[in-house]
Amino acid sequence: MHSFTQALRRELAGQGTRVLGVYPGPIDTDMSDGAPFEKESPESAAAHIVAGIENGDEEILTDPFAKDFGGLYARDPKAIERRIAEMVSQAA
After folding, report:
1. Could you count the other beta carbons within 10 Å of the beta carbon of residue 56?
2. Is 5 exposed, middle or buried (0-12, 13-18, 19+ CB in 10 A)?
3. Quick check: pTM over 0.90?
4. Are 57 and 42 contacting, i.e. CB atoms less than 8 angstroms apart?
5. Residues 48-87 pLDDT 10s
6. By the 8 A CB rule, do 5 and 23 touch?
7. How far apart are CA 77 and CA 92, in angstroms?
8. What angle do CA 60, 52, 5 make, to 5 degrees?
9. pLDDT tens for residues 3-42?
10. Distance of alpha carbon 42 from alpha carbon 55, whole angstroms
11. 64/39 Cα distance (integer angstroms)
């Protein structure tokens, strides 16, 4: 999805359309119920998204979990796969 977001941003820039990538970490909703890590409240995620839009950010990372993954992705995209596999095995 990140690559698609980047391609879409480039494609639509000429017509003045801004394309933002929103990359939240776990959000405290029914979908993440029982997840074995800290979760951000929906209100906090929404506030970070609005702030990112207002700041003109192209990538919006809403919480420490997302920022950690974003930094890891920037350094080593394949590391994300390893980190997710590690998290899944720890949760099992």
Report:
1. 8
2. middle
3. no
4. no
5. 999 999 999 999 999 998 998 888 888 888 887 888 888 7
6. no
7. 24
8. 40
9. 899 999 999 999 999 999 999 989 999 988 887 888 999 9
10. 20
11. 10
3-state SS string over the chain? CHHHHHHHHHHHHCCCCCCCEEECCCECCHHHCCCCCCCECHHHHHHHHHHHHHHCCCEEECCHHHHHHHHHHHHCHHHHHHHHHHHHHHHC
Q: Which two tokens stand for residue 19?
A: 């394309």
Going from the C-alpha of 79 to that of each of 5, 61, 84, 89, the distances in angstroms are 20, 18, 9, 15
